[in-house]
From TrEMBL:
The species this protein was found in: Antrodiella citrinella
Membrane as UniProt keyword: yes
Residue spans crossing the bilayer: 23-41
The protein's name in its UniProt record: Capsular associated protein
The keyword Membrane is assigned to this record: yes
Origin superkingdom: Eukaryota
Keywords: Membrane, Transmembrane, Transmembrane helix
Cross-referenced PANTHER family: EXPRESSED PROTEIN, SGNH HYDROLASE-TYPE ESTERASE DOMAIN-CONTAINING PROTEIN
């Protein structure tokens, strides 16, 4: 009778493979919950950050010229009668977008290489705007300024080996890129475009991070040209006023002789007079640019490079000498012997190098 009164263990307490069925049930419910949430919740798509090579493009050597050849660029002279961007935005308005130009020596070198028919590698370092958040959410979205600018570059300087990489990250600023930029830029690159005017904090500490970023890019072994590109975010204007992070960045640009190009002079006055209209036309939200806003960013960048192309062409043909001729132009034109100093170890070719 005693054995009949004993209760047999429940199925949950019974063991399978040495583990109670209760544990197996909990594990099964957990795995089912994981698969269910992955099924119903949207997952973040991983987009490529490297534009594949275009084998259909045929290189052009613009420096293979003879005397009397016409200017091959319809936009020259820059901001002149044939410049479509100047007609669209007004030449004076576009001229104001060049916050700091400097000598532009390294950028002229890149343009000289392109004029001679060489491939160029362009890389982007930036935050949410450069990552195309709000304009396709794809770093290489065709409606985003990196692709728009690269498409223009390929139209003017076609080459199957030219490349574009976008190392921008959403919600990221100079505090990260100052130390980790090498993970987002190829080992060998000709031009790095840095867009962080709308991502950095508005203080001296953020400027120090930005200074380290620019300096670390300039002293790389491949010696790339660096261009600082500025995006105007209305939210920054509303919270801190006119004196934003772009002013700190201009100070760094002046110290290191790096161009600083910004859309802020183009949109600021219009925003102050009619903020709702500007927000509706160019922005996805008070910070992010819409597709139309990215077109403005690209146009400002293209306008700056058009002026460099016109100056380099004029210098190469001897009609003007505003540009700083690089080795590519001199060798292609068969003129001059550009000798670099053997003891040039500094940032700009000087003997000393800034410590820090």
């Amino acid at each position: 009778m005693g054995s009949l009164s004993e209760k047999s263990p429940s199925r949950l307490n019974q063991k399978t493979l040495g583990v109670t069925n209760r544990i197996w049930l909990i594990l099964s419910l957990f795995l089912a919950l994981v698969f269910f949430t992955r099924f119903i919740l949207p997952s973040e798509t991983v987009h490529p950050r490297h534009r594949p090579l275009n084998s259909d493009l045929k290189p052009k050597n613009y420096l293979n010229i003879t005397g009397g050849d016409p200017v091959p660029f319809a936009f020259c002279p820059a901001l002149g009668p044939g410049d479509e961007l100047a007609h669209r935005y007004d030449p004076i308005a576009l001229a104001k977008t060049r916050m700091h130009v400097g000598s532009g020596a390294r950028v002229h070198r890149v343009v000289s290489r392109a004029l001679a028919g060489h491939p160029v590698t362009i890389s982007i370092v930036g935050g949410s705007v450069s990552a195309c958040h709000g304009a396709g959410d794809d770093p290489l979205s065709p409606s985003c300024y990196p692709s728009l600018f690269f498409n223009w570059w390929n139209e003017v300087f076609p080459h199957p080996a030219s490349e574009l990489t976008n190392g921008a990250m959403r919600r990221t600023n100079s505090a990260y890129f100052s130390f980790c930029n090498s993970h987002h830029v190829p080992d060998v690159v000709d031009l790095v475009i840095v867009e962080l005017d709308a991502d950095d904090e508005n203080d001296s500490s953020a400027m120090e991070h930005f200074e380290v970023l620019i300096r670390s890019l300039l002293i790389r072994p491949d010696q790339p040209a660096v261009v600082i590109l500025g995006h105007f975010a209305p939210q920054i204007q509303n919270s801190i006023g006119f004196l934003g992070p772009d002013h700190w960045h201009t100070a760094v640009a002046q110290f290191y002789d790096v161009p600083h190009i910004s859309v802020k002079p183009l949109l600021y006055a219009r925003y102050m007079s009619n903020p709702e209209d500007v927000l509706k036309q160019y922005y996805a939200d008070p910070v992010l640019a819409s597709s139309a806003g990215h077109e403005v960013i690209s146009d400002v960048l293209v306008s700056y490079f058009q002026s460099l192309v016109c100056a380099a062409w004029s210098s190469a043909t001897g009609t003007e000498s505003e540009a700083l001729p690089g080795p590519g132009i001199l060798s292609a034109m068969g003129g001059g012997d550009l000798t670099q100093p053997k003891d040039a170890k500094g940032l700009f070719g000087g003997v000393a190098q800034r410590i820090g």
